[in-house]
Specification:
The protein has 88 residues and is mainly β. It has strands at 8-14, 17-27, 32-34, 41-48, 60-65, 68-73, 78-86. It contains no helices and 7 strands.
Length: 88
């Protein structure tokens, strides 16, 4: 488990919400990212960008606790994009 820093961050207007797009070059199981968004997070999802070596290790999961996200990739060291809608 390690604290992650986004390689890139994009901020886009989504009407009354803001879409934050964080890109990570690699993540491992239970790595965390402190977004600083706190309880302003409305919704989020993660997209794996790497190619897992087996079908059994495909996919990912992410959880949020007060703006700190924890990653659970199917396989360590895959890139990941985190999409977050927030009221900021």
């Amino acid at each position: 488990m390690a604290a992650q820093t986004a390689a890139t961050t994009r901020r886009e207007s989504a009407g009354s919400l803001t879409l934050m797009i964080y890109t990570f070059t690699s993540v491992a199981d239970a790595d965390t990212f402190a977004s600083g968004l706190g309880s302003n997070v409305v919704s989020y999802m993660a997209q794996t960008t790497g190619n897992p070596s087996t079908q059994a290790s495909a996919g990912n999961s992410v959880s949020n606790s007060a703006g700190t996200f924890t990653f659970y990739p199917g396989e360590d060291s895959l890139g990941l994009i985190l999409w977050v809608l927030a009221t900021i």
